[in-house]
Amino acid sequence: MRKDSVLVCYGKLNPETIKGYKYLIVESKHYFPSNIRVFKSQNEKVFAYISLGEVNENAPHYDELKKLTLGKNKIWNSHYLDLSKKKTIETLMLIVDEIFEKGYDGLFLDNFDNYTIHGPQKEQKAGIIELMKLIKEKYPKKMFIQNAGLELLPDSNSFVDAVAVESVATDYDFKTKQYKLKKQEAFEKYLGELDKIHQSFKIPVIIIEYADTENLVSEVKDRLVQTKHYYFIGNIDLQTLPKFKK
Questions:
Q1: Measured between alpha carbons, how far is 15 from 35 in angstroms, rounded to an integer?
Q2: pTM across the whole model
Q3: Using the 8-state DSSP alphabet, how is residue 178 labeled?
């Protein structure tokens, strides 16, 4: 299968038109079980997004957890979860249950990097591993993609089926809202780290890149042609099918 057979979109898609992807990653709230059946009939694996590190103010479970959070991520208007609270774990497990009742093949687990050494929830590293163990024990046949948090892989790899990383070849600037390429040296170093991870843990690596023009997309593809990893190139908000200016 093509290395670019990945689609990540958190906006609402027409399931009938989405075909041929190895990894399809979507926002569960937009779809009924009948939609998931269509997705699954036309794509290899369908994953639902879930954050195990933050709760957005627009999320249905925000009111339940807002008094249990540890601070705010101003970029995404979300709040950091406290995994030491029983209510937090119970709420997250209910969300997982609701997602799997719809028929998804697995979960795309976001904000793992929050629990790494420089993350806002670094003190709760053991908590995220324990939560993953809990989810995997309840759903042993489901699949899980860990997004970022590479330093946690020695502890988390037995619970996940792939790891995703963002901005390996590209470097989006949130302050200026500009898309650009990473410096060649930094790109090659990062890619080398991913190759080692793939070899060490024997799990697929999915690269997620951001671009706004066809020219930048072409440059990114030129860089990624040397890799063995699956990849996706989209817009930073991930709300629509990718659109690139000429």
A1: 6
A2: 0.95
A3: B
